[in-house]
């Protein structure tokens, strides 16, 4: 038989082991995950809310349904056929009697056509998921919402003061400048942010147009405009040479609706300008007219007639009358001859016709000769 000491040691070991086992039994153990719901179907990702959409726009959206429960289910697609315009079911992978196991997905695709601006559309389709084990069912409501707008939800316009959606500088002289103001208006429902760096001017070839620059703007380094807010940007055209200029002005608005993936909005405007020469041709000076000197006619010298010698009548009583007459005739002839000779000289000096004067002198000489002959004849008869 074992001794008392051996029995005591064995008893002590049993007691210690019992205490250790008891402590382990009452010590708190690690937490255990609660089991998942046996029946659970959810919409994964995007739902049926299309949000604000520009009137006339057609948008298609695919909705994913996930079976996240522990049991397999089946879903009846029949309720999807109750959708009405502006919503239309265009396709689905859900089939009647199809078993959807845990973790599997099915999809449905719906198209929305935005009606008249201001129309709010909302429809709900209830899909029922049946547990294949027969323990129950689960209802999944799928809601479709949309609102039509006159513009896209993120939208703005850029116009000139006359309302034109273009940038036209008209005719501008080289060396001068012309400035056109564009007014930017947020037309959608999303706020937009603008900066001067998001305004880019290019020529028709796509290169930067150096003759058109930003003169000023209301948003400077950056400003956020809320719906229906406006801002301005002034563009200045400074032509350096004559010619037509065409290009584009691109303005970008950054969407500020809280969605970092929201795309920016871009508006591109056509640009036109005509540069004309600012320096005209050098005018030809009008010559100063020199007054034409008036020529003074040199008066023709008047010939001074030489006094004719007085013929002395020959003495004689009875022949005095005839002598006087003859003397008179001789004197007249000499005077006529002398005058004729002087006259011919004078006419020649003035360039007048000389021939009539010569004829006159000849006649005068002939007359004088006849008078002398008669006087001599008369003297001879007296002598006899």
TrEMBL record:
Quick check: keyword DNA repair in the entry? no
Where in the sequence does UniProt note compositional bias of the Gly residues kind? 316-334
Region called Disordered, residue ranges: 276-344
Q: Name a biological process GO annotation.
A: carbohydrate metabolic process
- Taxonomic superkingdom: Bacteria
Transmembrane segment boundaries: 354-375
Sorted alphabetically, which keywords does the UniProt record give? Membrane, Signal, Transmembrane, Transmembrane helix
Sequence ranges of Low complexity compositional bias? 291-315, 335-344
* Leader peptide range in chain numbering: 1-33
**Entry-linked InterPro entries:** Ig-like_fold
Name the chain's protein: Choice-of-anchor D domain-containing protein
Q: Write down the species.
A: Herbiconiux sp. A18JL235
């Amino acid at each position: 038989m074992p001794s008392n000491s051996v029995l005591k040691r064995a008893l002590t070991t049993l007691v210690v082991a019992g205490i250790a086992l008891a402590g382990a039994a009452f010590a708190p153990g690690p937490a255990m995950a609660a089991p998942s719901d046996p029946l659970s179907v959810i919409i994964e990702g995007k739902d049926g809310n299309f949000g604000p959409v520009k009137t006339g726009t057609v948008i298609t959206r695919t909705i994913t349904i996930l079976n996240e429960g522990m049991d397999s289910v089946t879903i009846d697609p029949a309720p999807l056929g109750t959708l009405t315009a502006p919503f239309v079911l265009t396709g689905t992978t859900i089939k009647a009697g199809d078993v959807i196991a845990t973790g599997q997905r099915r999809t449905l695709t719906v198209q929305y056509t935005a009606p008249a601006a201001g129309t709010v559309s909302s429809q709900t389709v209830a899909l029922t998921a049946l547990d294949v084990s027969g323990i129950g069912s689960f209802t999944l409501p799928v809601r479709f919402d949309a609102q039509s707008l006159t513009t896209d939800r993120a939208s703005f316009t850029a116009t000139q003061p006359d309302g034109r959606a273009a940038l036209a500088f008209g005719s501008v002289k080289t060396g001068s400048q012309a400035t056109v103001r564009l007014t930017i208006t947020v037309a959608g429902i999303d706020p937009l942010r603008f900066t001067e760096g998001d305004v880019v001017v290019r020529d028709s070839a796509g290169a930067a147009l150096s003759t058109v620059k930003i003169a000023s703007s209301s948003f400077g380094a950056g400003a956020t405009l809320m719906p229906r807010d406006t801002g301005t940007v002034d563009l200045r055209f400074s032509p350096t040479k004559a010619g037509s200029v065409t290009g584009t002005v691109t303005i970008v608005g950054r969407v500020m609706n809280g969605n970092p993936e929201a795309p920016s909005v871009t508006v591109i405007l056509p640009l036109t300008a005509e540069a004309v020469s600012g320096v005209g041709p050098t005018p030809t000076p009008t010559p100063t007219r020199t007054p034409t000197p008036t020529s003074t006619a040199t008066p023709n010298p008047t010939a001074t007639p030489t006094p004719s010698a007085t013929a002395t009548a020959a003495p004689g009583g009875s022949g005095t009358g005839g002598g006087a007459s003859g003397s008179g005739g001789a004197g007249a002839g000499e005077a006529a001859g002398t005058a004729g000779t002087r006259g011919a000289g004078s006419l020649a000096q003035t360039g007048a016709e000389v021939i009539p004067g010569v004829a006159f002198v000849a006649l005068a000489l002939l007359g004088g000769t006849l008078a002398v002959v008669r006087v001599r004849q008369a003297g001879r008869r007296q002598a006899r």
